[in-house]
Request: fold
Amino acid sequence: MFKYISSSIVAVCLVFTVAQAAKPLKKSPQFNYDYAITLGEETFDPKFQVIVSPTEWEVASQEGNDLRLVQFDGPIQESWLADMEDAGITPVQYIHPFTYITWSDSQSREVASLLAHVRWSGDFLNGYRVLPKWRDLSARPIASKVMVYKGSDVEMALSQLRNAGATRIEQHTLDSRFEIISFVAPGNSFLDISKIPGVFTIQPKPTDGGLRSEMSNQINAGNYDGSNTAFPGYASWLTSIGLDGSGVRIAIVDGGSDESHVDLSGQFVSCVGQSCGGASSSSHGTHTAGIVGATGASGVTDSGGFLRGQGVAPGANLVEQVYSPTYQQPGGMTLLMTESYRNGAVASSNSWGPSGSPQGYDIDTLEVDIAVRDAEPDVAGNQSFSYVLAIMNGSGGTSSQGSPDEAKNIFTIGSTKMRNSGGTQQLAINDISSNSAHGPCLDGRAIPHMVAPGCSVDSTVPGSHSLMCGTSMACPQVAGAVALFVEQYRNEYIDDPSPALIKAAFTAGAQDLAGNNDADGVVLGHVFDSKQGWGRMDLPAVLTNGINSVRYYDAPVVLDQTGDQWSATVSPVDPSKPMKIMLVWTDALGHGLGGSTPAWNNDLDLLVSTGLATYKGNNIGSAGWSTSGGIADGKNNIEGVFLGPTAPGQATITVTAANLNSDGIPGMGDAIDQDFALVCYNCAAEPGYSVVVAPSSQSVCAPATIDYTVTVGQVMGYELPITLSAQTNVGISAIFSANPVIPPATVTMTVSVGGQVPDGNHMVLVSGTSSDGTTHDSSASVGVSGSLPQTVALSQPANFATGVSIAPSFAWQGAAGVTSWNLQLSTTSSPFGIIHDAVNIEMPSYDLPIVLTSNTPYFWRVSASNNCGEGAWSSWWTFRTTDAMTVLLVDDDDNGPDVRSAYIAMIEAAGLLYDVFDTQNSNNEPTAIELQAYQLVIWFTGDEWGGFSGPGTAGETALASYIDAGGYLLLSSQDYLYDNGLTSFGTTHLGISSFTSDVNQSSVTGLDIFADIGSVSLNFPFTNYSDTVSNTVPAAISFNGNIGDAGTILNGATSGGAVFLGFPIEAMPAASQSTLMNDLLGWIGSGGTPCPEDCNGDGFVDVSDLLAIIDGWGTSFGCDVNGDGLIDVVDLLAVVGSWGQCP
Reply:
């Protein structure tokens, strides 16, 4: 298990610091989140990572070459990689933040640590190659895939795979870096395979994949009245805009299609390749093909007069491909796209997926991203290809997608309501249909990207027509729309648009669904989010713009290094309408490791300046329009700025390479580059210039001077002289190294700050005025301090306070001119006992992110800092923590409804303290280190179901360690067993031998320690999906229900234990909840300190405890082991006599 320490702590305190448990959901300065990486489902700052008693998963080979890690100290510069390669270290894959998985020998870790800008270097552990959920598989043979670095000895790796029991081995080149090998091997061989040099990741092949089960055309076209009722006439609308998809081919990758259907007759072209359909036919594939390109030739209409066989793009040609079994072979996902491209398709419609549950950015996901950039690896250059995907029918919730839904460069589509099962149109056309999955990706990126009508849609089936409901029906709506857009683009620009441009055009034009319902029936906010994406597809917004009112920029430049910029100046065609700008880039390839490891690589930032206001991408306000300020989006490779409801007079669009770290354009240029596409609606391009000041803020200790860089950018050959000026406050002046200048130009602005300027931030407004009278502005700030800050006055906890929370909050008096504060917490009144060192605190208060030992004295002090440096430390204040029990409450529900208040009331009524760990309805769960500080953990899941109800694999492992160490767990969840099945943890630690889900218990009766509760009725605040369970031996039944046994209780071997309830506690009467809490406390007992010699509570009696005795010698305020009121030789001998790990 990973633990975090500060490198600034002196050696004698090391063991003590290692064991401090990080309090959930708060940031520790010893855990720098700016550098926190996620690997093996653990998030950690590698510089402060110490692995205590490592398992075989927590080590790596030290012999010869293998995969290693190198982390830099900021956004990547290409010269840094050159230095690393010159040192014999080959970068293989970028991992956010600022980290590379590399190929080198173990000695290169030390070599790397000496390179400029390298923050840390270390091993790529065995456990990073296998996700926790796959580390404890049985010996049963399982079909799997492994990625092997091509720079290793691949033949040796194949031999070692066979030695590990692998059979049915197939090999395929994935890209220039990796071979992908599929095989069948015992599930318990993954550890041995992870030890093979060059093995990058091992993953079982998913087994839960498969298909994702003219009125809708008119909804897409906006042809409906004020009540949202659609009317016939889609063919006429296509005629009016002069488009039908002619000349464009779309691949239908599905279960096969009925090519003889009268509405599809003549639409399919011949297909060559192993995935081509031909004889295959299915209702699903015929239905999706019809939605894309059926002609309506049959003339069959429904009762409303709508053609039942009318596709979105009836003039397009279709390529029939069958996804299975091709997708299961190594490289199969890429091969499907390659064969689509080879048969002339520009895009494919994919209403299926290899997995129906969230996998993160896994191998299958990586494969589709590879082919979006280059679908034909055997031809020089990059042949781009658009992949339109139906997100999983995950039925709302959170992160209910499948795979490859989390790919960065595809177009992932959710579904909206269309018709009911009887064919009548639903008027709530802007509601997300209940079948549609919600994101986000496991790494936090937003999906789906857009939604379209999907439930239910009328289309072709073999020999007839039928209604079907699902995201499967929404995806082909968009694929057909892509055909229309490509046709129009070819007509206007000859070339085909890139996948990035297609995605930008549709997302910028989508209809915001704010105020309508998501898949769970919860009201939607404004775009963008992980439910509607950028909104519902709107064909007129994309296809009916005049050629002069929309600007398409498709790879206008290649950005080569961090800091590169591109800009354009635009003005509105119609100032009364909004201006919408969307940036999309086909990002460099992600890692393929799966799980929650961030998959983004190159980071571009969209900035739009309209004068004094600058708008950053994806900062959408409460009115649905962009708001100035905010922070740049570092995750998503799609960024929008919507300026409305009316457009500005002029706008300068800038795309900045915030962090280029990877090869965004493989096979072209060098190892770091990135192109992009940008669409601007209601925009006319014109020559112009831009003014940008960098950096945006700096600070000085006055009097002083400081330099800024002013860049005057050129747009479309603008060459008129620009005169620069600066507006400043009294006592501040600015001069320019050159003035006036002809764009493009870069000048230095030197700002002088006098000694009498007041402390605080001062704005410098830089204006560039052209000889044609136009002016562009940019601003920067300078923070000013005149002297060191005064000594801080402490407030809370009061000096010598007792009964303080084990997770205390600190407060002190603020002061003008202070830019930040620093806080130290110690077990002694000296720096030698420091256990927590917080720096750069922005407010005069601080919530401690670690949990302290109960009934223990601590000391704290604070210093203030400003631009002149750090002031003197305050004197030490002391306090003693409470001896009351503190409960860890793990909030694992989906807040629909939020039931946390019931648990808080139950805990508070028992007179207990509590801390909350909110999993955010994901598998981001407390670790064993975080659990160990609590005697009782209460874990509840409310109405959550569909993948994240209750602890996941890593959470179960942590809980097992916690219970084995004497901790107590109460798990209340009606869908933990439904989502996870009966795991080994459920059997060995919860005492469950079997279960039946969704039996709908309406009453329960307390047994065992809960016998005093008696029989009570259950009143569910959400749908009743309660379970029955049977117990193992020696577990017992904790509650019996009217349908069957409803819970278990299992005591640990010596202490600790667990109670499982297959129903929600919040369904019980409040009085019964209080009784249950008191019964739990009686079960746990008063206990006592099992290891009083462990002064700091880290589980070890060692040097740090000895120092605590010495520091408190002769007093009663410290580590009084025997409790006699005096710290003396008796306590010292007790510590020495108990040296080592606590029992």
Observations:
- Residues 471-493 form the longest helix (23 residues).
- Residues 966 and 973 are 22 Å apart (CA to CA).
- Residues 1-30 have pLDDT under 50 and may be disordered.
